[in-house]
């Protein structure tokens, strides 16, 4: 991008500038990439939110249900759920509270350590996941239908590289 905020290849402004209705150019390619990741994440997450809303769950609640399903009948402590979530959130307990109120998950105290609370998915939670499984799969495919398998592999690799670089800085 040059100083006029145009893409050198086409002479038109970068698509993200247009989407955000921003007139000033990005400070850097890094800023443009960062905002592109955030915008893309928001747009894609909105698709899933539209699917989950009629079921009465949020994207984060869906994520917790998937984690609990994967844990099987053993369940998981709340802290372990938080570490496995796609989006980091300090509110795992509140998410589980809401799932429990909806009858989709339940908690109980550990036998060997009564201080530890174990979370498990209910039959209703499993049924909800089964109900949305195919629509989720369809959204997964539709979101990236414009990319070839090779482009998807490249995107995945590049995003992995960004996260690895950030993990080294922690």
Structure summarized in a few sentences:
This protein is mainly α and 170 residues long.
Total helical segments: 7
Question: What strand line-up does the widest sheet have?
Answer: 1-3-2
Q: Could you name the CATH class of the largest domain?
A: Mainly Alpha
| C-alpha Rg (nearest Å) | 20 Å
Structure description:
The chain is mainly alpha-helical and 170 residues long. The chain has two domains: 1-55, no CATH class; 56-169, Winged helix-like DNA-binding domain superfamily/Winged helix DNA-binding domain (Arc Repressor Mutant, subunit A, Orthogonal Bundle). The protein has helices spanning 15-19, 29-52, 59-71, 78-84, 92-101, 123-143, 149-169; strands at 76-77, 105-109, 117-121. The chain has a three-stranded antiparallel sheet with strand order 1-3-2. It is elongated. The model has no long low-confidence stretch (mean pLDDT 89).
Q: Keywords for this structure?
A:
three-stranded antiparallel sheet; single chain; 170 residues; 7 helices; elongated; mainly alpha
What's the topology here?
Elements: H1 15-19, H2 29-52, H3 59-71, E1 76-77, H4 78-84, H5 92-101, E2 105-109, E3 117-121, H6 123-143, H7 149-169
Antiparallel strand pairs: 1-3, 2-3
């Amino acid at each position: 991008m040059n100083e006029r905020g145009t893409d050198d290849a086409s002479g038109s402004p970068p698509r993200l500038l247009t989407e955000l209705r921003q007139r000033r150019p990005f400070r850097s390619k890094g800023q443009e990439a960062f905002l592109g990741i955030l915008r893309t994440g928001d747009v894609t997450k909105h698709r899933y939110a539209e699917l989950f809303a009629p079921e009465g769950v949020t994207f984060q609640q869906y994520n917790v249900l998937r984690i609990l399903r994967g844990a099987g009948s053993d369940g998981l402590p709340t802290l372990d759920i938080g570490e496995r979530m796609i989006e980091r959130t300090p509110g795992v307990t509140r998410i589980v509270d809401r799932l429990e109120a909806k009858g989709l998950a339940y908690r109980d105290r550990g036998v060997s350590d009564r201080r530890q609370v174990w979370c498990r998915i209910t039959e209703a939670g499993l049924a909800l996941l089964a109900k949305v499984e195919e629509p989720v799969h369809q959204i997964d495919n539709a979101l990236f239908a414009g990319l070839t398998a090779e482009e998807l592999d490249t995107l995945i690799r590049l995003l992995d590289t960004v996260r690895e670089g950030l993990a080294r800085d922690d």
